[in-house]
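SAMPLE LOG
Freezer: B-3
Tube label: C17
Construct: single chain, 198 aa
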Amino acid sequence: MLNAAVLVLNRSFLPIHVTTARRAFSLLYRGTAQAVNERYETFDFESWAELGLAAREEAVGIAAGRIAVPRVILLSQFDRIPVRQVRFNRANIYARDKSTCQYCGKRFARSLLNLDHVVPRSQGGRSTWENVVCSCIDCNRRKGGRTPEQAGLRLIRRPSKPRWISLVGLAGREGYPEWRPYLGIVDASYWNTQLVDD
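STRUCTURE (predicted):
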């Protein structure tokens, strides 16, 4: 229970990190964070402990009884958003390419797109921002294991690393319903898994 995931918000209610319940309780007890409920109300350690437990809540034992594990905590003093690199993952590639096939220029639902290596891996291509693009199924099939030039296709735009930073990376693991107002992400684990070059 003490290893359960807890979303950490900065003082402006922006998500900045995911920590363990053990660390969250430590921050609550020291007064450097407050627990946040589903109505956006904040509680210090004592008032959180006095709330009692709903039937579905995970809890841990303390000297005075049991205390619910908070799903979200708010840091009292931290204003900044940590500097992050744009994660190389499906969600960010689809966002960069605006869910548009980079060969035919048509926009598709995510389920009808896949990722294509401009220079195929079989020809030494790597999984990098500069070599992976969105491609519709037909264009990907037409291209096959060839470069766009070899397949008679032309890229709409040369792929590059985006300059924007996404908070999507915070939801790389399964979250709780209480996290949704802060993250607003569906199927995050698939879209936000870091892609690596084998």
